[in-house]
Amino acid sequence: MRIAIYGSGSLGGYFGAKLALAGNDVTFIARGQQLAALQSNGLTLDGTDEQFTLHPVQATDNPAEIGPVEAVLVGVKTWQVADVAARLGPLLEPHTRVLTLQNGVEAPGQIAQQIGQQHVLAGVCRGFFFLEAPGKIRHVGVQPSITFGQLDNSRTPEAENVLAALQGAGIQSSIPPDIQVALWEKFLMVTVLSGVGAVTRSPIGPIRDYPPTRRMLTDAMAEIFAVAMGHQVNLQPDFLESCLAFIETFPPEATTSMQRDWQDGYPSELDAQTGAVVRLGQAANVKTPLNEFIYNSLILGERKARGM
């Protein structure tokens, strides 16, 4: 399959490398030091259960140099999605599918507004990835996986082809009956871990083990669950219990990318995660006081990182 990876940091780099190693025609779209590293030294993964180096690597900063592809995996940060959506044109043909891998629930709609709903595969990605240095990725903990689907939940031949390519590369992947449920399940989990982790400046282990911060996790989760219900998302009644049980399996040193970016003074996905909870709660007339507290506690640091 001919594939473009738009956003070739830790997440896009990992999945793109796996697809390329399986024999797909993969081109990475990157910039700056990451692009230079990919072009000169390739891409190296140091993972808990796997290590590999992909070299040489096809990489560019210009989608027009690639031309139409069968699939695009979008791995950029949430605040970069609108710009990427406007630049997808050279990569598209009638049967191209664009797979979004962002945290949050709004990116698929942003892409669809630009290129049409039929081209979009809304995706949910799991795994703890770190870009240790340009061209060098580290993965720890949770088994990497991608769950995705058409926005109308139809099973199209194009989506099945993407599924076959991912599974053929050894990537755990599936198409669920309802992609909105999958999006909100991931949104709930990563948002509470990001928000509570950033406001406490702590990895998941101590947060789980200290009763007051563990209660922050469960209370923030309950608010997001209520927001999902307000938007007619069919989360299962026992989801909060199963989500907390899943969080118990995470390595104690694990942190989210939003938390790391915020703590390091970089622009983060705060607005697409905790900020989205507040916005979507207001739209559904659902109160979210703890998530509002977390958002307001972090927003000044976010504004500083963005030069505002």
Task: Give an account of the 3D structure.
This protein is of the alpha/beta class. Strands 1, 2, 3, 4, 5, 6, 7, 8, 9 and 10 form a ten-stranded mixed beta sheet that branches. Helix content is 45%, strand content 20%. The protein folds into two domains: 2-177, NAD(P)-binding Rossmann-like Domain (Rossmann fold, 3-Layer(aba) Sandwich), CATH 3.40.50.720; 181-305, Orthogonal Bundle (N-(1-d-carboxylethyl)-l-norvaline Dehydrogenase, domain 2). It is built from twelve helices and ten strands. The mean pLDDT is 95.
Fold topology:
Elements: E1 2-6, H1 10-21, E2 25-29, H2 32-41, E3 43-47, E4 51-54, E5 58-60, E6 71-74, H3 81-86, E7 97-100, H4 107-115, E8 120-133, E9 136-150, H5 157-168, E10 172-174, H6 179-200, H7 204-209, H8 211-230, H9 239-247, H10 257-263, H11 274-283, H12 289-305
Parallel strand pairs: 1-2, 1-6, 2-5, 3-9, 6-7, 7-8, 9-10
Antiparallel strand pairs: 3-4, 8-9
Helix pairs in contact: 6-8, 6-10, 6-12, 11-12
Q: In short, what is this structure?
A:
This protein has helices spanning 10-21, 32-41, 81-86, 107-115, 157-168, 179-200, 204-209, 211-230, 239-247, 257-263, 274-283, 289-305; strands at residues 2-6, 25-29, 43-47, 51-54, 58-60, 71-74, 97-100, 120-133, 136-150, 172-174. It is of the alpha/beta class and 308 residues long.
